[in-house]
Each structure stands twice: as C-alpha cells, then as structure tokens.
Amino acid sequence: MKGLYCKLSETGEVKFIIQESSVPTTIGKHQVKVQVKGCALSPVDIKLCEDLKLQREHVPVGREIAGVVLQVGPKVTFFQPDDEVVGILPLDAEMSGLCDVVLIDEYNLVQKPEKVSWFEAAGAIKDALRAYTALHTLARMAVGHTLLVLDGASPFGLLAIQLAHYHGVKVLATAVSPEDQKFLEQLRPSVGVLESLVARVIGVWDSKVDLVDSCLEETGGLGVDIVIDTGVQLYEEEPEVKKHLPHKHDIISLLGVGGHWVTTEDNLQLDPPDSRSLFLKAASVSFLNEEVWEASRARQGRYLHIMKDVVEKLATGTFRPLVENPVPLYEATVSMEMVQRRQLRKRVVVKL
Questions:
Q1: What is the residue-wise DSSP string for 60-125?
Q2: Residues in Cβ contact with 122 at an 8 Å cutoff, skipping those fewer than 6 apart
Q3: Whole-model pTM?
Q4: Cβ–Cβ contacts within 10 Å for residue 319, how many?
Q5: 33, 103 in Cβ contact below 8 A?
Q6: Chain segment 103-143, per-residue pLDDT in tens
Q7: What is d(CA 285, CA 288) in angstroms, rounded to the nearest whole number?
Q8: What distance in Å separates the CA atoms of residue 300 and residue 305, rounded to the nearest whole number?
C-alpha cells in the first residue's frame, strides 16, 4: 500500500516521495479503519513538527480525509462498518492519508452526509475548521461586525467569507490578482441571488489602491472589527513572496476600537509604538493555529461539534469550497510540491 511522505534533505530542502506502508494488524479499542476515498493536500508545517518534537525520517502527508468505515474497535460507539466519514488525521499520525486504508481514533471523525462528495468533504474540512477557530473561538464575531479577510479568494478565505456572511457579518476582502477580484465580486450566497457575499473587494494587486484608506472609507472612518490575515510584512524590506502582504502597521491602523486581529504570522513582532496603538484602541491580537484543538481533551467535544457543523453546512450549500479539479494518486507528488511552494492553493486526490 502506497502513501505520500515528506522527507527533509541535509540542506533543509523538503522532498515528497511515494513509498510503501502497511496497516497495523491490530486495531485499537477506540480506533476506526477507514478506506480512503478522498484526501486533500495542504502545505506541511515543518517548523511546527519540529517544535512539537515530531521530527521523523518521513513525515506523513495528507491529513484531511474522507472515506468509508471498514472496521471499528471494540469500544467504538460513534460509527459502524459502511458509514461514510470525514476527518483530520492528528499531527502525530504514522500513516499518510493517501494510503488506501488508515487507522484513526473515532474522536477525529464525523459522519459525512450522503449528498456531500468525497471531493468536497476532504477539501473543505480543515479550512472550515480554521474559519470557525478564527471567527468564533478567537474573534467572537457577532451580527453587525465588519470583517476584513485578506486573500479572500483562497480556499480558507472563501470559507471564512461564507461563514461570516451566514452570521450577519459585513465582509470586506482583498484580492491579490485581477482574476481573484472578479471572482470575489461575482460571489453570491446561492444561485439566482443578486446580493454579493462581499460588501467590498479591495484589489491590493493594484499599487494605486490603499488598503487602509479603503477600509476606513467603507466603515465611515471607524475601522473594522475583525481582521484575518495570511501573513504580514514585519519590516520595510521583505522577500518578494511577501510583497503582496500588508504591513503590520496597516492592519493596526485599520482596526476599530475593540477590534480583533487574528494572525497566521507565527513570528509576529510588535514594537512598543505598535503595542501602544493597540492599547489605545483596546484591540487584541490572536494567533490562528487550528492544530491546538487536539492539544487538550477538554476541547474534544467542541472540536467534533465544529466538524459536524461544517459537514452540515456543506450539505445545505452554505459552504461551497474552492478547490481545483481532483488529481489522481500518480500526480500527488508533483501537486504536493507545488502546494508546498504556494504555487497551487490546494489539491484533492480522489480514489475511485
């Protein structure tokens, strides 16, 4: 049985390889054996694995899975054979999600509605979990809030937009290309509805457009209540890959009183003047790391509740994920390399 794994070279370069792996012959008391039908490819956070002492010669790749239950452990109560399920393999999983069969604890899975495809389920589950973590858990969004989603046309950004709109939040979003801007401007809650999901699309690809001025203009000078970034510029001179990202001063400037800045920048550095500006606004900064749900057993119930709500919204059409066409297993290595280099946003491998 073949799976996809990540290997670090001596120079620190990330390589992806297909290699044989085997399923343990014994199944744990609370484990479920799942035949994988769909698996999403997202970037591997090598630094996080190092921080958590999870370094291995080969790190399994492909953690977002959907499939059919083949066998359950003696104490499993949530599932039975032939159930269709979707879930996320834990960070310390030893098997790749691209294997034909995986073992996973029942507490990391939820039932997949019949009308939700393998493709949609695997492609949306983790990005939707991130959106819930950012908006509900960290930002405490409420009706009437104004939200700015940076790179709104990304798979994560799109689900954050849809979730916020569903809860009555006014959404602003940035577009990093003319194509993304056109896509966001034409985004609708459902077919035949004229209302747009995004109140204003800010084309940051255009050097003439000022992000701060656009947000303040849209909010009457008050600033936005919530900002979700995809990284920020920390210094005046940044690598080319960060040129499309806003500077941290811009985000602080466009935040309103009592605002929440949810950041994915794991090495964010705030200078005393930055902290003073946040203090004067009584604003807060939260770090978005959806992996923490498995760090505490006390959070397990809420974690499962979120995943159940995600698949229900997929079934009703509230969530409509943005994922490129599915790829076969033999293209997984090349696709994963492009995803890791951020040349592709996301790929899903579907097995027939």
A1: E---EEEEEEEEE-TT--S--TT-EEEEE--TT-SS-TTSSEEEEEGGGEEEPPTTS-HHHHHHHH
A2: 38, 39, 40, 64, 65, 66, 86, 348, 350
A3: 0.93
A4: 23
A5: yes
A6: 999 999 999 999 999 999 999 999 999 999 999 999 999 99
A7: 10
A8: 9
